[in-house]
Amino acid sequence: MSRSFDSAAAPCGAPLPQVALLGTGGTIAGVADTPLEQISYQAGVLSVECMLESLPGIDGVARIASRQCGNLPSEDMRPCHWAKLGRDCGAALNDASMCGVVLTHGTDTLEESAFYLHLTMSSLKPVVLTGAMRPATSLSADGPINIRDAVAVAASPGARGRGALIVMNGRILSARTAVKAGTLDVEAFCALESGLLGRVINGRPVFYHKGEDEPPLAGTYAAHAGQERLPRVDVLYACAGMPLDAVLFSMERSAGLVVAGMGNGSMPSDVRKALAGAVAAGRPVVRASRTGGGPVTDLDGYAPFIASGMLSAPKARVLLMLALAEAARQGAQSPQALTAGVRRAFECCHEA
Ligand code: SIN
Q1: Ligand 1 proximity of 73 Cβ (cutoff 6 Å)
Q2: Asparaginase/glutaminase C-terminal domain spans which residues (predicted)?
Q3: Which of 8, 55, 199, 281 has an alpha carbon 20 to 30 Å from 64's alpha carbon atom?
Q4: Which residue, judged by its Cα, is nearest atom 1 of ligand 1?
Q5: Active-site positions?
Q6: What share of the chain is helix, strand, coil (3-state, %, to 5)?
Q7: Which pLDDT tens digit goes with each residue over 228-281?
Q8: Exposed, middle or buried: residue 224 (CB in 10 Å: 0-12, 13-18, 19+)?
């Protein structure tokens, strides 16, 4: 089901901008048994049409063309769903009548879908992802206001040329740097090192910095938008005494690996030695951090590996999958050339 509002007049008499609103599921479309229940509920139930009904007046912010593109909890998102999101967003962005796209999405893997779209969408028009921490049936549900804010951002000229954005709880964040950093609070997303791009204040987007002509990494992998299968990349979570056999299992099956390392991306020495062998065999390894704060830098003793910079482990995985897909598209390379190419892909991840 889909609908579009007829052209409404802005105060100056100009037609309101048109925004595509694509529903994909999550808590924002979730339903609990009672309004007091905020934790036990079913995510991905309500349609985007139904969510719009709780937003009287949204047609004064922008004309909305809504479409249901799926309805699932985001823990079930897979690369094939990212590919579909890429195709659906691409179709909406190619429509000359649309000034931007808003995607409603579960928050648990929102940062991965957002970063995938950042890497694969080449349009200057904004793609804005939003979600909710409380189900739609909840007392003080945060979904409706998040949709209103996301639509206001997608309709704003200031959002152009910034790649994919995340709008949650009145904050505007770059998909490149934002992470989910809370389990329950409505203030669940942040970008610790680089901060906010701006805020939505009483429905008005306020950007703190000018957009860039070429935001880092935006559209770098446009050639892979809509590609259903991406190379397998496993994330290994480093911990004291982590079993080596689990590392070897992933090494045998993955085209590349990300280690959510300790501190500044460190790992036990037996794991480090085994993974150096993976790199030599043509499986690039990226070091991220399990700490959740601070960049991961190059480090003595870790020369074969690539530092993730500002990227969280899940984001580093998305970039590595696409970088490996691109390497495969270019044809067979030596392990050294492959790792060097992936290293270049991660270079700008050290900038805020
Ligand atoms: C989900 O990610 O689909 C469930 C959790 C949420 O949306 O907050």
Answers
A1: yes
A2: 232-327
A3: 199
A4: 106
A5: 27, 107
A6: 35, 20, 45
A7: 999 999 999 999 999 999 999 999 999 999 999 999 999 999 999 999 999 999
A8: buried
